[in-house]
Amino acid sequence: MFNSKIIGLGKYLPDNVVTNADLEKIMDTSDAWIQERTGIKERRHIAKGSDDSTSLMGVKASKIAIERAGLTPQDIDLILFATLSPDYYFPGSGVLVQEALQIPECPAMDIRMQCSGFVYAVATADQFIKTGMYKNVLVIGSEYHSGGLDMTTRGRNISVIFGDGAGAVVMTRSENNETGILNSQLHSEGKHAKELSLIGPSTGRWVPEIMENNDPDDISYYPYMNGQFVFKNAVVRFSEVIMAGVKKAGWKPENIDMLIPHQANLRISQFVQKKFGLSDTQVYNNIQRYGNTTAASIPIALTEAWEEGKIKEGSKVVLAAFGSGFTWGSVSIQW
Fold first, then answer.
1. pTM reported for the whole predicted model
2. Does 187 qualify as catalytic in the annotation?
3. CATH code that applies to domain 180-334
4. Is 285 a catalytic residue?
5. Which of 110, 161, 225, 324 has its CA 20 to 30 A from that of 291?
6. Per the residue annotation, which of 115, 233, 265, 285 is the catalytic one?
7. pLDDT tens across 158-201, in order?
């Protein structure tokens, strides 16, 4: 059986920076309030008139990752695209990337696991590679949140959190079983599905029904989050799934060189860091600059950590996520 490893990383963020001060002008909030609860100082939003989309941001990040891998787009055997904000209801964004990169008849699969999407996608790519079915897999996390947020005081608890962006990695076959992806841990708990959700429009509530009701107070087409409930579950599940992956890899928490948590809330990351006794140099956070970019947050942070020299050959790296579903997971990597 083959092993899999990451050989190329890339990221893309829109140029348009939206600070907390900018949000103060359009809703009843404050920089202090946002930072105290989330740690976020600014985020990126796709600007009006921009050509950027979920798939195009993914393409831009992918081109960098493929070039850094020393490959061409035609070398890619499979695309896995993690997102909760696809360009269209259907088809998925993966096929749009395949067309944009001009990869002939490459299979493309969208993975709809929200904040855990990239972790699930890496785990899926790992299995495809280990079985020998595919050699070079492009894994993308990309989100275009800003166009679907309630940017008023009514929606402030959620809208101040999210940002737009994309990250990508190229994974390939390796015959060295001591390096690369060592293990992945994936879980879900559907009984809490509606505690972090966007219910409509959907097949349970089609657009005509929403239009027929024409209710200005209907906010079901905006994201909903039971913040405190999600936070309490996140800190427990993060800790469990990180420990499970670390133990299976034969490590102890203090052996982790770099923990890349999903950038949901800085307070969650700080809680986990304290629980495991990790130093600031062992945990990478960039939510302060980008907000929560859902499936894109881990590949963006992973790319930045690598670019900054904080991940290098021999590094023990852990990716961990928790999000809507509820879903959660981790990936342990010997770089």
1. 0.96
2. no
3. 3.40.47.10
4. no
5. 110
6. 115
7. 999 999 999 999 999 999 989 999 999 999 999 999 999 998 88
